[in-house]
Amino acid sequence: MTQFCENIAYSYLAEHFGTPLYVYSENALTNAFRAYEMAFSGSQPLICYAVKANSNLSIIKHFSELGSGFDTVSGGEIARVLAAGGAAKKIIFSGVGKSVAEIAFALNAGIKCFNVESLPELDRINQVAEQMGKIAPISLRINPDVDAKTHPYISTGLKANKFGIAMSQAEQAYQYAANQSHLKIMGIDCHIGSQLIDLSPLVEACQRLLMLVDKLSAQGIELEHIDLGGGVGIVYHNEPIPNLNEYAQAVQNLLAGRKLDLVLEPGRSLVGNAGTLLTRVEFVKQGEEKNFVIVDAAMNDLMRPALYQAYHHIENAEKNKQPEILADIVGPICETGDFLAQNRQIAAEAGDLLLVHSAGAYGASMASNYNTRCRAAEVLVSGDKVREIRQRETLEDVMRLEMKFL
Ligand SMILES: Cc1ncc(COP(=O)(O)O)c(C=O)c1O
Ligand SMILES: N[C@@H](CCCC[NH3+])C(=O)O
């Protein structure tokens, strides 16, 4: 029995668009966004979709039409949001290394706020704003020193991480910002990490920020908004993911009675489970110690398993296909780390179609051309309609920029 994305068979999509292929369900994107809106309806937050999770223009456009704002981390991401029709006034610009050109671009666009991560960055933004005769809206990203209990590569709220301004330096930094002629203090923010499966660090970070908000208020610095960073984790395997309503309730209890607007920057939980990577089995190879299912997707298409030993559920597109073997599911790239899964029970023969689940976040957006492989196409399914939203790259696309130097 073949499996479906909404009303379209994966086998049809693979034949029509080729593999590897990213497939997204529009319904799943909408439902995930609405789940945040509903959970937090008591505080009417500005939900700023974290573009890095999936920067496809059509996905940005879809979220924009749902009313989303955007968390961006480069001039390129800001350009994408603007190109897709996103409102500049709903763009937040995060990141530890904003260049002069990126700051000028963001100021010209008229974004909502810069999330500033250091004193030198404050100086740089002030200088660029002065040269342009503008006032830059800023918020300070505070590093609350909270352990998010996630993979160390995506934990961002500890003292040892490069992100944010230390709690101990925060008041001084706000006073400094208040004295700069071309900055306007708007808010406070934090982001402690991604794929969070425990609510308590998120709540603790919010509490720490609110203590700081009170201290600043006593010093005459009033903030308009608090931005709590990324969203909750998603189920890849069998993780006990946090309940969004519980998170919302805890935050809303903490914010009750305060005149602070709420901003959220979820990425993974808006797109992760809306996406599947389709890949075709090239060969099944019996090694001396292991079986290998060699597929046409690789670490350049989906880097998460190689980079974080991340788990993605993989199954044959034909449900209940037998027999299963124990195998590593690997790509064609010349690296031993090029695997999508290790030691999995899977039914797979050459020519079979496999579904790599939960690939909507940090999949296509982290893809590369390593081994001079062409990036996969992406399609969006809505009911029984399917739309190509990124064409498969050709070799000419990949080589175009360099060819002129030959
Ligand atoms: C500053 C910032 N905001 C938001 C996000 C999105 O986080 P998540 O995808 O876990 O919701 C990230 C990524 O971790 C981030 O670095
Ligand atoms: N790329 C990571 C998440 C990074 C979050 C960015 N701050 C992942 O796939 O899990």
UniProtKB/TrEMBL annotation:
Enzyme class: lyase
Residues the entry annotates as binding substrate: 268, 304, 308, 335, 362
A GO term, aspect molecular function: diaminopimelate decarboxylase activity
Modification N6-(pyridoxal phosphate)lysine, positions: 52
PROSITE patterns cross-referenced by the UniProt entry: ODR_DC_2_2
Lineage top rank: taxon: Bacteria
Protein name: Diaminopimelate decarboxylase
Keyword annotations of the record: Amino-acid biosynthesis, Decarboxylase, Lyase, Lysine biosynthesis, Pyridoxal phosphate
Active site, renumbered: 334
Similarity field: Belongs to the Orn/Lys/Arg decarboxylase class-II family. LysA subfamily.
Enzyme Commission no: 4.1.1.20
GO BP annotations listed: lysine biosynthetic process via diaminopimelate
Taxonomic lineage from the root: Bacteria, Pseudomonadati, Pseudomonadota, Betaproteobacteria, Neisseriales
Protein role: Specifically catalyzes the decarboxylation of meso-diaminopimelate (meso-DAP) to L-lysine.
Cofactors required: pyridoxal 5'-phosphate
This protein's pathway: Amino-acid biosynthesis; L-lysine biosynthesis via DAP pathway; L-lysine from DL-2,6-diaminopimelate: step 1/1
